[in-house]
Amino acid sequence: MASCQPRFHSEDQSPQPNSSGYPLRVIVDEEIPGPPEEEEDTALGAEDMWTVEILCEVKIKVKRRRVSSVLPEHHDVFNRLLEDPVIKRFLAWDSNLRVSDKYLLSMVIAYFSRAGLFSWQYQRIHFFLALYLANDMEEDNQAPKQAIFSFLYGKNYSQRPLFHKLRFQFIHFMGWKVRVSQEECEEIQAFDPELWVWGRDRALIPEVTEA
To answer: Is 154 left (phi over 0), alpha (psi -120 to 50) or beta?
Structure first.
């Protein structure tokens, strides 16, 4: 009777079929687990592949799961800043959600998690820096975000260069990681799905008036 013990081969050796004649290949890569499919094995390094002899040929693929850097303390900071009177007035003003819909606000939390500041260091200016940057990344119409300056500085235009300097520093603190996926935004919202700002959904507004 043929032995049922599996035998392992490195990729540079030719696997010897057992009595069944069908080798099992176990491949660890970055793809999503799914049904068997044919792919080029040469795309993987020898250290990433093992061949096991058993009854039939199956490819098992494992995806390394992304670990979010967003912590509960970043949500706490965000919730604290929502109580700021200037931020409250700004969100009430943006009733058409041109600058602060739920996805842009989710990006604010993501940016807080990447900037690496202590919780007590985040102030009103950081909320608006993050929101301005989120608009930079996601919005085609850049005009509405200019209202941020009115709420921060009123008619004092001399402060705008300082704002942009701080914005550059904020991006530097984040290690230039400014892209936020929709998946991450939805994970952030799922942490506290009853938070009132997650109701700021553009899909619920019949028509958004452009500035």
So the answer is: left
